[in-house]
Amino acid sequence: MKQQLDMIQLWLNALPPRDRQLLFAIIGMLAVTLFYLVIWEPVTQGYEQERQNFKSQRDIYAWMQSAASEVQVLKRSGNVKTRSNHPITLILENTAKNSGLTQQINKIESSGKEGARVKIDSITFDQLLVWLNTLEQQHGVTITTATIERNEQSGSVNARLSFDKLP
Description:
By secondary structure, the protein is of the alpha+beta class. The chain is built from 4 helices and 4 strands; from the N terminus they run αααββαββ. It has helices spanning 2-14, 17-76, 88-99, 125-139, and strands spanning 105-110, 115-124, 141-150, 156-165. A 4-stranded antiparallel beta sheet has the order 1-2-4-3, with helices on one face. Strand 1 and strand 2 (115-124) form a beta hairpin. The radius of gyration is 36 Å and the shape is rod-shaped. The chain starts with a helix and ends with a strand.
């Protein structure tokens, strides 16, 4: 290794001073370029990306805080589900009738003190979601289990659902 360094030094000394200066200038430019490309640019890009990630996370956090305060306001405003003393099967039958789903409901049967099972054939998925939302929001009836299968008709499903009434 020492021999190679000595040979390089001899070669450099043999160069005219002007060529030697040009060579050192090129080596300096090459060192600065390599430093920029290998160290500076990746570090600054990583920093900028992490800064963007932090800003995004901060925005999400701010949104979550405002949503949490909105939830608290809604809870305090009395937007509470109405509870009915009617049996859950009666609630299911009445809401199905009001939603125009009597034709699609195949069977409604009680299960336990506050539960029921429903079998529905050939209902549009949108109708099913609206009905389920009505049950939960207006009557405090929640789904405990659901089996929903695609039907032959486009947008139509068959469903087997179990419900419980919130206390």
